[in-house]
Every structure is written in structure tokens, then in C-alpha cells.
Design brief:
It is built from 10 helices and 10 strands. By secondary structure, it is an alpha/beta fold. The chain has 2 domains: 37-155, Response regulator (Rossmann fold, 3-Layer(aba) Sandwich), CATH 3.40.50.2300; 160-289, Response regulator (Rossmann fold), CATH 3.40.50.2300. The strands form 2 sheets. It has a 5-stranded parallel beta sheet, with helices on both faces. A 5-stranded parallel beta sheet has the order 7-6-8-9-10, sandwiched between helices. The chain is elongated, with a radius of gyration of 28 Å.
């Protein structure tokens, strides 16, 4: 009798355990399936307003095309991508603020974007601190993946050194020795000018920089810089401005006849389709220009 009671008790305990276990197992299975279907969140950081939008908008549009194409193929491991987008305005503080909101509030899986080098460097620090991978399509300063190397930052963009080397190899076939450089006064501009100086003398050893212009981002009036170039009378100008800044500089330069008087090389940015479209008939003849990719 006692053995029978013991056996009955064990069966009851087993049934109780099963009653609790199966719902738990079922809930675990459902949670796993739900997790598998949960989208992979990308915290997008783009320059969507101001002059930087000439770069930021195409970055956002290109990312959306990629997300749509990947999702149409089933995503990754059964999970689709969801790209969120916020405006960094090209400002490091704003970019960091948005990145922190993505990480702490939205719980994104990855950070994607940034364009201006100084905002990219700032967000990279946040990414490393919170162990969140940052992938950027636009940050160009060498420092991003060299001096500031991190296991959490990746770029699918070229570097300032590559621009400068390509420009120097192109420039060497011209007889210009005295150069004036104009570049945005922040990380990208300074790194790009440094690289250009180093690469230029490799192909033209007696080349010299006779002047430098450092306008701020969103500079409203380039007149002082244009007048300085005309005053110095270099053999050629190497222009590192891009996006809305190069657009404004060229429009104002045309008014002074700058491009009729001095050869201008704008290897990275002036031939961007957004810039060319905005310039229209204001695009000067004979400018040596290029664009990314």
C-alpha cells in the first residue's frame, strides 16, 4: 500500500512537472521563433538637412535600396532589416545624441551612417564604449580606421590618402608647381590637405603650397577666400570642399571669374551628381573634377 501511494505521488509530481514544463517549453519555443522574426534594427545617422544633405540624402536613399533588396531576398537568417533614420545635421554633438538614443532607448542592433569625419569619430567613441558596431559609408579621414582603430568601427568608404594619391597621379601630367588649397576647417579637411601635400611632392618634388584657405562648414560668404586666391595667383587650386559647401564656393567663384583665370582641381565632390544638378548652367568649363565611386 505504501509503495502504491509512493508510486502515485511520484506520478502526480511528474504530471505537475509536465503541466508546468510544457507551457514553459512552448513559451520558450514561441519566444525563439519571435526572436528569429524580429527585425534587425539599424540606427541610421544621416545629414538630412542643411548643405550636408547633398551627401546625407543619397546615403540614406542608397541604404534604403540595400535594405529593400536584402529584405526581398529573405533578409539574414530569416530576419529582415529595419532602417531607422535621424538627422545629425553634420554636427558631432547631435550625432552622438542620436546614437545614444538609438542604443539606450531603441535598442538597435547596429549603428549605420555618419558622413562628416568629425561626427563619425565622435560616434565611433560611443560605439566602442557600448560595444555596438558602427558601419559608415562616408567618413573619409584616415584616422577613423588607423589612429583610432576599433573592433567596433567599419567603413566601406575610401580614405583621404586614396583621394590624395589618385589626385597627385592625375596632376603630375600638368606643369603646375604653385598650388593653393582650400578645404573645410575640421577633421576631414585637415587630413585631406595633409595627405595631398605628402602625395604631391612624391610626383612633383619642387611643387609648393603658396596659400591655404580654411572656411568653416556652411560658410555663407566665400568672397575673402576667392579674393585671396586671385591675389596670390597660384598656378592651380586644389579644392577639397564638398556637398553644399563646394556648390556655394563654385557659384560665388563664377561671379569673380575665378575658374576662367586659374585652373581648379576638385577631385572629390564637385562631380557628384547632386552638385552638378544643383549647379546646372553655373558649372564652369574646364574644371578638373571627380566624385566618389
Amino acid at each position: 500500500m505504501r509503495e502504491k501511494a509512493r508510486f502515485t505521488g511520484m506520478v502526480i509530481l511528474a504530471l505537475i512537472a509536465i503541466c508546468f514544463l510544457f507551457p514553459t517549453m512552448n513559451a520558450s519555443s514561441q519566444a525563439k521563433k519571435a526572436e528569429e522574426k524580429k527585425p534587425i534594427l539599424l540606427g541610421g545617422l544621416f545629414m538630412l538637412s542643411g548643405r550636408g544633405s547633398l551627401v546625407g540624402q543619397p546615403n540614406y536613399q542608397g541604404a534604403m535600396v540595400a535594405v529593400d533588396e536584402l529584405n526581398a531576398k529573405g533578409g539574414v537568417l530569416g530576419r529582415n532589416f529595419e532602417l531607422m533614420a535621424r538627422d545629425t545635421k553634420g554636427q558631432p554633438n547631435q550625432a552622438v545624441k542620436e546614437a545614444m538614443m538609438y542604443i539606450l532607448r531603441d535598442k538597435v542592433d547596429f549603428l549605420y551612417g555618419t558622413a562628416a569625419s568629425h561626427e563619425g569619430l565622435a560616434v565611433a567613441e560611443v560605439a566602442e564604449k557600448h560595444k555596438k558596431i558602427l558601419i559608415t559609408p562616408e567618413v573619409t579621414t584616415d584616422k577613423f580606421t588607423v589612429e583610432n582603430f576599433s573592433h567596433y568601427t567599419f567603413r566601406n568608404d575610401h580614405m583621404c590618402r586614396m583621394d590624395a594619391r589618385g589626385a597627385a597621379l592625375y596632376i603630375q601630367k600638368f606643369p603646375y608647381k604653385k598650388w593653393y588649397v582650400i578645404a573645410p576647417d575640421y577633421e576631414y579637411g585637415h587630413d585631406a590637405v595633409k595627405s595631398f601635400k605628402e602625395e604631391l611632392v612624391k610626383v612633383i618634388p619642387d611643387a609648393v603650397i603658396v596659400g591655404e584657405g580654411w572656411p568653416k562648414s556652411n560658410e555663407p560668404d566665400y568672397t575673402p577666400h576667392i579674393q585671396k586666391i586671385l591675389e596670390v595667383k597660384p598656378d592651380a587650386v586644389y579644392n577639397i570642399l564638398f556637398g553644399g559647401d563646394v556648390l556655394a564656393f563654385v557659384k560665388q567663384g563664377v561671379g569673380f571669374g575665378l575658374f576662367d583665370k586659374i585652373p581648379c582641381f576638385s577631385i572629390n565632390g564637385l562631380a557628384d551628381t547632386k552638385v552638378l544638378t544643383a549647379l546646372g548652367k553655373n558649372m564652369p568649363e574646364g574644371v578638373h573634377c571627380g566624385a566618389k565611386y
